Amino acid sequence: MTSRLYVALDTPDLARAKAIAQRVRYHVGGIKLGLEFFMANGRPGVGEMHELGLPIFLDLKLHDIPNTVGKAVQALYGLDPAVLTVHASGGRAMLEDAKAAAPLNTKVVAVTMLTSLDDSDLAATGVAGSAHDQVLRLTELAMSAGVDGIVCSGAEVAAAHKLWPKGFFVVPGVRPANGAVGDQKRVVTPRAALDAGASILVVGRPITAAEDPDIAAREIGATL
Asked: What is the pLDDT of residues 191-220, one digit of tens each?
């Protein structure tokens, strides 16, 4: 069975990203490449990472007018990421255009609310209610727009899964029981996230900043 653990290679350094991916490749199900990596290395860098043979989660969190996002997704053709992120708050038309433009085998998932935010951050942006309520509102929007799933924290994934039983749920901000929280605010353990309905887990620093990333990935994988 393929591991449901994806390692977040949030670095602009291509050589470092490749080195970590090569060390953990037999203990993870895929690699996540975010804005730092893409801005520094672009399509050629993603192409080099593809050569490692691991599924790629391209975490670009696209958010713009529908036409622009649709064309941006089309511009990724040839890279064929396994997973691609857009922001749910971009609205129904943007989500529909993103999905329509994506390759058939790419799962388009909508980011509901970043795991670095909490209720007070939400209020500061003018959105009433709790983070939990906002995630469920955006889950309903994503489901109705026809994308494949959402990104949410482990704190909301059980409720989102209940709302959307066939959805694909990406849970970042996952930390081992003894791990440092860092700049994350809504975190759960890997096992708890899977039990609550996560489809894949995204783990970064607990693996990439470990003295031995391979051992760290194996230890987290052993809890799944």
From this structure: 999 999 999 999 999 999 999 999 999 999
The structure tokens 């309520």 sit at 133
Question: Which of helix, strand or coil describes residue 222?
Answer: coil
Q: Which residues are catalytic?
A: 61
- HEC string of 69-112 equals HHHHHHCCCCCCCCEEEEEHHHCHHHHHHHHHHCCCCCEEEEEC
Q: H/E element holding 221?
A: helix 213-221
- pLDDT for 94 beyond 70: yes
Q: For residue 155, which amino acid is it?
A: A
Residue 218 gets the label, from left (phi > 0), alpha (psi -120 to 50) or beta, of alpha
Q: 224 with 5: CB under 8 angstroms?
A: yes
Does this model's pTM top 0.90? My answer is yes
CA distance 193 to 25: 22
Beta bridge mates, 7: 31, 203
Written as six digits, the tokens of 137 are 């509102």
Q: Is residue 184's pLDDT more than 70?
A: no
DSSP string, 26-76: TT-SEEEE-HHHHHHHHHHHHHHHHTTT--EEEEEEE-S-HHHHHHHHHTT
53: exposed, middle or buried (Cβ count in 10 Å: 0-12, 13-18, 19+): exposed
